[in-house]
Amino acid sequence: MLRAGFRQLYGSGYILYTMYKMKYKRIYMGGCIMNLNVLRYVIEVEKNRSITGAARQLFISQPNLSRDIRELEEEIGFSIFTRSSRGVIPTEKGREFLALAKRAVKQYQALENYCTREERDNISLHICVPRASYITCALTSFLSKNARGRQLSVNYNETGTLDAISHVSDRSASMAIIRYPDRYEKTLLPLLKLRELSYETLYKFELVVIMSERHPLAKTSVLTQDLLSQAVEIVCDDTSLCTYLHESPDADHNENSIHIHERGSQFDFLTGVPGTFMFVSPVPDSVLSRYHLVQKKFHGSPRKMTDLLIYPEDYRPSRAESAFLEMLKESVQ
Predict the structure, then answer these.
(1) Among 38, 100, 154, 221, which is least packed by CB within 10 angstroms?
(2) Chain CA centroid to CA 309, Å
């Protein structure tokens, strides 16, 4: 009866049956079983005329997107796109397929809107992150804009790199942002592949110095290691990666230091303990203003870092997760 209803709704067996379950959607078309998300992917590729550009817009890795398109082409028996150094363009059959795919996606969206009111009324987000104000600000903005009138299930876990990788690997978190010094990249990325995790660069930056507006160095134009060595450094390091790699934690911190293990108290120390400073990722102006802090560039050996978005290889973001990632991307920019 259900199948017959869909035939009547969508026409002569074109979409015979549709199944919706959590984030994974599949449709039966012409005897083929297709992931609805892949249809959305090829539509985005046509729109961008580029697989790389489409992957960026979809927040998935380019190799995964290429693989999904290749598997779809193998399943339907013809090429959807012609690839060249200047990008991709649809083949003749590809244009016909894309027109039908757009129709299928539009029809499914109508059905989904009817059947998934509960999803629209709820926001579920489980993510592990490093201690970074720009990420917290992005989540705050996202919830402020989208949470009113909805039921929330948000698990925002500030934790270390190895813990974040474990949480995503065992699916207790749907995605994570991990932070590491660039020198660890060649060792870390194979670990992610071993755990069957995909990844993409979210933010590359150099650590900056923040301190109170009343700090004796607050008006100094050039901060050097010699100047900072006379001050008290607040250290909030993730040493798990060093331990995993059997390396000693960074030795370039001041001997005169306060070590903390959570981000919340850092602002209390910076504003309440005279002469303190901290190396952090760039901080949004709104946070600096709220806590009466200044942010300065360090003139010394560059401390280059990467924030990496990681997720299971078969992961596809929910509507809420995609919206949050878009807002996070805007925050980075």
Answers:
(1) 221
(2) 4
